[in-house]
Amino acid sequence: MQPSKLLIDQKKLFESTAIQCSRIVTKKYSTSFSLGISLIDKQHRDAIYAIYGYVRYADEIVDTFYDQDKATLLNEFRLETYKAIERGISMNPIISSFQKVVRQYGIDVALIDAFLNSMEMDLTGNTYNDTSYNEYIYGSAEVVGLMCLLVFCSGDKTEYERLKAAARSLGAAFQKVNFLRDMKDDFDERGRIYFPGINFANFTTADKALIEAEIEKDFADALIGIKQLPIACRKGVYLAYRYYTKLFKKIKKKEPKVIKTERVRINNFIKLVILLKSDARYRLNML
Length: 287
Description:
Elements: H1 5-29, H2 31-38, H3 42-63, H4 70-87, H5 93-105, H6 109-124, H7 130-152, H8 157-181, H9 183-190, H10 205-226, H11 231-252, H12 256-259, H13 268-283
């Protein structure tokens, strides 16, 4: 029996409401990523909102809900994700939007596993060695870049493989900048130090310089790939790159003691300036 037009319209209403929830989450939690997404071609925009909304909510489970059993919440989130991918629907609108993107673009469940495993590491890991640090960076950030890349390449696996390394580098750079920006909050609120071998009480100029050199290499490798992205998404990704490199330059100017005592920010006016300058550089082919 074929569904009636009414039922089809109602299903479309559910799906549009679900993706609207993902848009709201993105815009409420990140003005910088929202600006970047707004410059991506409309055909890809909702898929990126869905990915961001999903990873944002998972991150909230492990970072914010101090009065809840985080391990149980994360496990339920994980199980509901797998069920939704199998069924093609979830009553959680954020997960439902995400599963649709997973199915549409052929996102490998291994990428989702790696992401959720990194979120789980945040429940128990307070310090990291080289191995666990690289594992965490891959799962928490690089795989998110890879999910977005599959959308940008419209599921074209050949194009995806060609740009894969650069997408991982960009995700890694973003995450490491976040680690430096949030070092005080991560330590004070959650007792975490992500960088291997770093003593928060004795965070030195030499320590900071080593981390910054690592980030600079990631950004340089990422820019090569950004220049080769499909035209429909290149401008939006370039804006996110420019925002984070601006934030990184501001962090580089700060002494280690400042990083330990305050969260470095870019105000909304400067974000607008970055948007205008990025657009100009893009139009003049000065990436």
